[in-house]
Structure formats: structure tokens, C-alpha cells
Amino acid sequence: MPASGPDIECRRAAAADWERIWPVFQAVVEPGDTYAFPPDIGEEEARSLWLLEGAERAATYVAEQDGEVVATAYLKPNQIGPGDHVANAGWMVSPASTGKGVGRRLAEHVIEEARHLGFTGMQFNAVVATNTAAIRLWESLGFTIVGSVPDAFRHPKEGLTPVHIMYRRLVPRPSVLFLCVKNAGRSQMAAGWLRHLAGDRVAVFSGGSDPGPELHPQAVEAMAEVGIDISGEQPKRWSEAEVSAADVVVTMGCGDACPFYPGTRYEDWELTDPAEQPIEVVREVRDEIRRRVEALITSLEPSSAP
């Protein structure tokens, strides 16, 4: 969908746009200081690499100002198969148009296009460390440097230079709240499993209606056996803010004491309370919680289809 700003129109590129994209591409690549394309790349090879035609969930874009193409970008899956929910993109702005908000306008447009196409994140694989203007722009748009590769780019003036991998999430991460009575066993084990299995893809909270003084030792021991340390957690009462913000509330035996908010997804897990149970029983509870958490994670993961 085309998008317009002050004197700037952003839209998908057509094959006929290439003759106006090529001068921008050439001007950006020729200095050899930002992209890993050969500085003397030929036009046909450049076209085959940049102008994405007929590919599924992939496209090239242009930003026009006064009828002139002043910037261009591409968007495509970063990987195939199980990795195709994360987008990869690249931008080029005509040197005469840098510092005028053109790159930001096109970036915002392409990021919105990525959401529309069902991508849940966007990754840049090789941002040259000396390209500080681009890094500032991406950081202002929510990207973070998640890793760097030393000496991965041969800069014409600086020599061997690091490249950064940058990433931002395109959809809000879901939040899950586990509730039980004492917040000392089942809900803490479930929270531990979800943090372990989902990492930072899910915001995890737990609470109780009548919090106990400490975690059940058997629950701590059983989780430690599978490499998950919950010993530093403390039972606490759930907060109104956590409940109202949660996408999913999982209850475990707190009955009518558990809060209810219309419109929130609720699941009730019937599980044996590990309090004063032998370790063999707690292990069974632990393993059953893992199975349920794995199913919960699957239900939270968005499809890669638009």
C-alpha cells in the first residue's frame, strides 16, 4: 500500500522503476563503505540482487520526491522454513537526500509492510560499524545490536571493520501470568519452564492469592534436576496490573480467589499440589507442567502467514 508524507511517497517498486533505482544503488555502493556488494558491480547483477520480482513475501520499494526516486529498499524473509517469520531488509538513500528524513520515512513504511506480511521480527545481518548514521537511525526505530562479527568488512579507509547484527521485534511479545494459592510450587515451576523454553519471547509472571513464606523445597529440587534454578524466587501476591496486562492467565487451584478480567484468555490446569509430596510425585508434576507449557508456547507463536 502506498504511503505518503511531506513530499515523499513510498510504494512497491515495479520493473519499470529500475532505471531510476540504479543510479541510487550505484551511488551508494560505489564508495564501498556500507554494503558488501562489489563497488564495480554491473547493472544486470545489481538488478538481479536488489529488484525482487515475483517472490513470495518479498518486494522492493521506492521513495519518490518530486517524481524522482530518492531512496529504495528491499524486504524478504531472513531465512527459509522455520526461520521465515523474521524479515531481512536493506535500504539505500541517494547521497543528495541523506539527512532529510527520507530514509526514516521509507524505513517506517517497510517496517509496516513487514507486519502486514506476517513477519514477527526484522534482522539486519551486516551493518558496518562505521556506518554510524544508519546505526543511530535503526536504534531510534527500536533496533538493537544483538551481536557483532569482528573484521568482517574490508572498509576502503578503515581497513578490517566489524559488522553488527541488529534486530527488533515487530509484534508485542505476549505475556503469561501463572496463578495458584501460595505461589510456592506449581505456578513457580510453570514460570520457570516458560522462561527456560521461551526465553525473552514471552513475558512471564506468577503470583498467588495467599502467598506462602517460601518456595516448596521439593519444587526447587525437582526443577534443579532439569537445570532450572527457581531458588531465588519469592512467593508474592498477584497484582492488578499484571492480571490486566496478561494475554493469558493460567490458574492452578486458586478457584474463586483467582481474578477474572473479561476478554483475557484463561486456562485452568488441574495439577497435584507439590506441597509435602514426595520428590517422585513432584517430578511427575514437573514433567506434566513442561508438556503443558510447551503446548502453551505453540499456541502463542504467530503464524508466518499474513
Task: Describe this structure as you would to a colleague.
The protein has 306 residues and is an alpha/beta fold. The protein has helices at 18-29, 43-50, 102-116, 132-140, 186-198, 217-224, 240-245, 279-300; strands at 3-5, 8-12, 59-65, 68-77, 86-93, 121-128, 144-155, 159-169, 175-180, 203-208, 248-251, 265-268. The strands form 2 sheets. Strands 1-2-3-4-5-6-8-7 form an 8-stranded mixed beta sheet, sandwiched between helices. Strands 10-9-11-12 form a 4-stranded parallel beta sheet. A hairpin with a 3-residue loop joins strand 7 (144-155) and strand 8 (159-169). Helix 5 packs across helix 8 and helix 6 (217-224) packs across helix 8 (279-300). The longest helix is centred in the last third of the chain and has 22 residues, at 279-300.
Short description:
With 306 residues, the chain is an alpha/beta fold. It has eight helices and twelve strands. The strands form two sheets. It has an eight-stranded mixed β-sheet, with helices on both faces.
* Sheet of most strands: 8 strands, mixed
Helix content: 25-40%
Order of secondary-structure elements: EEHHEEEHEHEEEHEHHEEH
Question: Using DSSP, what is the number of strands?
Answer: 12
Measured between the Cα atoms of the first and last residue, the distance is: 14 Å
Strand ordering within the main sheet = 1-2-3-4-5-6-8-7
* Rg result: 25 Å
Low-confidence stretches: none
Gross morphology: elongated
Tell me the number of helical segments per DSSP (H or I, 4 or more residues long).
8
Q: Give the structural class.
A: alpha/beta
The protein's oligomeric status is: single chain
Mean pLDDT: 92
Q: DSSP strand (E) fraction?
A: 25-35%
